[in-house]
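#struct-pred

JT: dropping the chains for the assembly here, can someone run the whole complex?
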Amino acid sequence: MTIFLQLVASGVAVGMIYAAIAFGYQLTFATSKTLNFGQGEALALGALFGLTLAPFTGYWLMIPLVLVFGFALGAVVERLAVRPAIKIKSEYGWIMATIALGIIFRNLAENIWGRDDLKFPSPLPDAAVEMGGIRVLPMEMLIVAGALLMMLCVEIFNRKSIWGKAVVATSNDIDAAGLMGINTKRIITLSYSISAMTAAFAGVLVAPVTLTGATMGAVLALKAFAVAIIGGLESGLGVIVGGLILGVAETLTGFYISTGYKDVPGLILLLVVLSIRPVGLFGKAVIKKV
Amino acid sequence: MILTKRALMGALLGATALGLVPAQAADPIKIGLTGPYTGGSSSMGVSMRDGAKLAAAEINKNGGVLGRPIQLIERDDEAKNEVGAQVAQELINKEKVVATVGFINTGVALAAQRFYQEAEIPVFNNVATGTVITNQFKEPDYDVNYVFRNSAYDVLQAGMMVDEALAQNFKKIAILADSTNYGQLGREDIEKYLATKGVKPVAVEKFNIKDVDMTAQLLKSQQAGADVILAYGIGPELAQVANGMAKLGWKVPIIASWPASMQSFIDIAGTNGNGVIMPQTFIEDKTLAKRASFLDDYYKTYGVTKIPTPVAGAQGYDSVYLIAAAIKQAGSTNGPKIREALENLNTKVEGVVTTYDHPFTAKDHNAISRNMVVFGKVQDGKIVYAKPEDAKNAGVVRVKEKSSN
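RK: done, full complex below.
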């Protein structure tokens, strides 16, 4: 039993890493029906930026600066890659453009920070804590708490602030929101900024556990994308549940079936969800009238 | 026109022979230098490249080879098989190299070296360890083999790792290997060697590059009662294995493949990496004059206090000296002649790993034999000799055993 719980605990930690990254996909998709495929690079840039700042400011003080950095980064991505595509009503232009921008960011990061995987100093002790026979790293608990806190903050922002309400309105019906006098272009930029901000924050959050480097986001962002599809691209709750499902499925399969097949159940789940419920477990089914 | 060109060449050759013209004025001898200088295995690639460049600079300072300077043509293969194949064709057809040294990744070596074999140009693996590399063009399918190597190949390393585990009286062995060509070929070698010893591993587990969590692999090994872990992978993931064990509070020794000496392992594993041992051909110590001057030069030239991956740096350095010696002996830059010279090197070549005395024969293209490899141990951020007797004998050059490969 303790083994099962240990596997679940580790799976939850990994799952929350995926969820924290997947959350960013959901934010931009809601407002503009577009995604930033450079989300993994935003994560890496955030982590590397934080790594550079940490010696001067310490871990906790570095976080607000990373948030500002992520916010600006998102705006740049939206202006350069997404807005031109939306303007000419290109359905797919933003896909290539965000991927291209991601590659540019990665190469930039490789030139600045080098190609090696680096160690990110952990703000909490490295020794694991034992709770009822299962062992967790303090950093893993921080990831779970930090990711939930981040999502909570974004939710509160959306529900309570005037800007947030504009974001929600734009998500519901972009044309109606525009007619009501909401500057939807600006709202889309804002959603990209918040999305990249969450990615940058996720970067410094997970970096002490994962490896830090220009390519750290490659695998994580792909898994997070699967999580966003499973959970539903328009649902904040969906990405949490999707992340936990995928993370726990990976560790359980690794132990009870084979570590060689660790990634298989997640992908099967992805296929099943796509064929039975294409909008994801928590997505809203929309009927598109032609 | 042809006549004048010839006359000029003749005059130049005569002049060089007489030592009238400084070596730099002569046409350089082009040698390809290929490895991953970007991406996850770049710390090995860059160390190898920097070591090779030091050797070339030294040779050129002393007058070059055949009166001509050596020019290294650097190309980044990005650890990608297809890029490696492309680089090989470019070096052969466009740059017209007379030989190539390099290759960190087994997959890249296998994809690229057939172009050298076809072009009859020697290709020298100085870091890649896949056992199959030097066997790709073996007799009887091929008359001659243009692939040489001065790194410790996998069968040799796997054997050492297993023997060490058994010598320390461990009975229950768990194998953890990454899912790349490198990891899986290494795992096969370990399993085969274990079978000859009549030992069955209690667990054989796999992990992917960039895996964040090793809980499942480690718990399975722990539940199987493993008392030692043989890990085959590269720096970052090996570090995650060490960190994962610390997290689970499980303490058994790790015997890893050689990349556990990478800087990334030392950095990421931190104190969790202390005590991990791995086969090494070279440890950073200054007991020999040659090694001391190599290390001082390396630190000074590149402004570092430690070679990122010492083994790769040392083997890269030696590989250029071996090729240079062969070109000198062949008296020409003709591929088949260089190969013949390599297979029958008359002069002893003093490198930093060892002094090479007839390192190759027509049948044996591996310069490193088992007696030349020692166990290194991670200790507080450095790789040191794992065994006191090796540390004591650090100043003794371990030369290749006859007919050992």
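JT: nice. The longest helix of chain A spans residues 2-32. The first strand of chain A starts at residue 129 and ends at 131.
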